[in-house]
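Please annotate this fold before class:
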Amino acid sequence: MKKFRYLFLMLFFCGAVQAQKAIQLNNPSFEDTPRAGHVPTGWKNCGQEFESPPDTHPADAFGVNIPAIDGNTYLGLVVRDNDTWEQVGQRLSTALSKGQCYTFSLYLARSQSYHSASRITYKDANYNTPAVIRIWGGNANCEKLELLALSVPVVASYWREYQFKFSPKRDHYSHLVIEAYYKDRFGEAYNGNILVDKASDIVPVDCDTPDK
């Protein structure tokens, strides 16, 4: 009898995991008209006030000319020498649940050329130092309540898939934020960039599923 009860519980648990659907992002490929200071449709600028918004590339701006890996355009995010950085967010179609494990991936690259004025010197600077991506959960536009995932510094000047696995510690995060950030926050602020394309669905998985 105990064996049947155990089997029933296992089948119930597996069915519950499978019943949770993947969360599809709005415009995961960051498609829009290429333009500097223009956030792709479906995403909200979450950067600091008085700073320019992220860019939709390739926009014939700042020397960024890497072709998109998916669709026609992608997102460009920078970190700046005045201790500001760019970030975007959106409301999720389904909230993230506490204790549930999820997998998520982004294609990331670094442009070797990203020329703009330094916010400190006001002279031309190349924003080409490697940075990292941080992924946050929250319950309002641009709110960052919990750091869900962190990438390694993005060094390659070609597209690579970066995979993340996370499990929220709090329940029902309804919003997601993707932000560029400094690779070493204990050091000085600097000028850098990350290009972002082809975001995957956020997929519920068994927490015991091995990382890829």
User: Anything to note?
Assistant: The chain is about 10% helix and 35% strand. The two ends are 38 Å apart (CA to CA). The chain has one domain: 23-205. The first strand starts at residue 44 and ends at 45.
